[in-house]
Design brief:
This protein is α+β, with helices and mostly antiparallel strands. It has five helices and seven strands, in the order ββββαααβαβαβ. The chain binds magnesium ion. Magnesium ion binds next to strand 1 and helix 1.
């Protein structure tokens, strides 16, 4: 078995949708980025690629590549799943945390799990998503951005 971690941050700005775990969350600001800036899915992808020893999302999906502009990160997550499958890896479980002062994430977490579960063909019980504030401290506390961390465990698929 192999473990990987992922960490990502995106800036919160006006005039962008807030998409986390593939859920479009109604909010006055959204995350800025080349893709849909889904910081949670980006952290999950980096955890999976890290577990497989395959670098990071910047290596696989460069942000100067126009084909990834505005793309749903769930599509990129599907590509990461394909890469891991080709390498002979299956996913054991994923744990993650969204670090944001606002809005409340709890009502949206079941749909985030649903989305990630369907892309990764992984049981919902094997995907955990938590959320925390930073008690008003730092860039997340000032609502300048949202961060996410993830850990993933993978294993060789038995043949
Ligand atoms: Mg990112």
């Amino acid at each position: 078995m192999r473990i990987g971690i992922g960490y990502d941050v995106h800036r919160l700005v006006e005039g962008r949708p807030l998409i986390l775990g593939g859920v479009n969350i109604p909010w006055s600001k959204g995350l800025l980025g080349h893709s849909d800036a889904d910081v949670l899915v980006h952290a999950v992808m980096d955890a999976l690629l890290g577990a497989a020893g395959l670098g990071d999302i910047g290596k696989h999906f460069p942000d100067n590549d126009q084909s990834y502009k505005g793309i749903s990160s769930l599509i990129l997550l599907g590509k990461v799943f394909d890469i891991l499958s080709q390498e002979g890896y299956g996913i054991v479980n994923i744990d993650s945390v969204i670090i944001a002062q606002r809005p409340k994430m709890l009502p949206h977490i079941p749909q985030m799990i649903e989305n990630i579960s369907s892309v990764l063909k992984l049981d919902k019980q094997c995907i955990n998503i938590k959320a925390t504030t930073t008690e008003g401290l730092g860039f997340t506390g000032r609502e300048e951005g949202i961060a996410a961390q993830a850990a993933a465990l993978i294993d060789r698929i038995k043949k």
